[in-house]
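Appendix B. Chain record.
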Amino acid sequence: MTVASVQEIAEQPLTASAPPDPRIERARPNFYRFSILIAQLGLLLGVFRVYHVEQFGGPEDLNFFAMLCVAFAAFAVHYWIPFQWKEKFWVAVSMISAALFLERRVAAGVLLAGFALYFILSSKLSYRIRVALTIAGFLLAMVFNWKADRLAHLSYGLSIPTAFWRVFGGLFMFRIIIYVYDLRTIKGKPSLTEFLSYFFILPNYLLLLFPVIDFKTMRMSYYRRNIHDSAQQGVFWILRGAVQLMLYMIVLQAHYVQELKGVHSAFSLVWMMLLTFLLYLRVSGQFHMVIGLLHLFGYDLPETNHKYLLSHSLTDFWRRINIYWKDFMVKIVYFPVYFRLRKKNDFRARMVATAMVFVVTWILHSYQTFWLQGSFVMGWQDTLFWSILGSLVMVNVWWEIRHPKRKKDTGWLAHLRTAGSIIGTMTFILVIWSLWSAPSVRAWLDFMTWWRPGV
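Structure tokens predicted for this chain:
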């Protein structure tokens, strides 16, 4: 080879081809494994129909079985289409479902609101201006929600159904906070498909109390592993959610019967507190079904609740009862406060950050009630519940900092201590949960002092 030929080769442009997307291989179909998944989903639909799992209370749940039929049918199609079209297909199904399961004007309103938010947040305006415009839009929407009855019919013949505000809040009230927060650090501008797949999630139209899914986690989890493993995990979580919802219906009936009987003994008091807490099975059951459903479409998200009845401390309970909410608070509140204060005093930074998490949680629960019910609720029972729980979690955090864990003991005494911790923790949770669920502090005191004459 001559020098001229070497120089000629060296001067040729290098065209490095991009490596293939590993998710394409993870999405590769397999008829046998697909058949197993479809068979399981068919059996689940049979269970839902026979045991009326969809009828677990609330007017928004009337079309729940139909929604599952649409979602499972969409999975059967979604599984076989090319990878580059999969997410677009899921988004299309979710958006069309808005017209199927919502009143026409409500569906049109939330879709228009979603596109307006996207074009504001994806514009070339500065980050601060985009955030300011989003906050201004939400404040205006909150005014309309607050005066929904009076402003149901605006001038120029424009009519806004009051149901619109509940659905709008269910879709955007928390996830918009995460999305705006992530815009500061995310690489590149999220596409319209990514935006729509995050906010317009099919079950959310019917289940307005929805897990606070993290945007970055959702994007990173998309076809993170083989679709058959992810979908099988989803089927298991849908089943777990169905079991929890069936248990919820039993608990709801038992709670109603006990309410009619009243509390007349220590046993009936404990039984009533336990039943009141177990009504949370509806929330954890719905959350498991939602995340399980998303697994079918490639979103390999983590579980939302983890054996919260086995919590061995208040901090452990906080970590287990609603994992997505805990992660939301850590990301939006704890880390910003902690990293701002830690240079001066690490211990104080942890304590202040923990306190702020519970203050913001208290406020945001009232904010959630505002969107779903149309009014802020900040009764004394709510204030006491979050104050007591937050204060004792701070004590728990202080203890963990001052007494770091040593080598784990596996002897029978250690198991006995763990069992005692679980019993003590859950007993305390039952008491303060009954306070949070009571209509007033006075009603709760009457409930707890059942032995007093005249009560």
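Further analysis of this model is presented in Appendix C.
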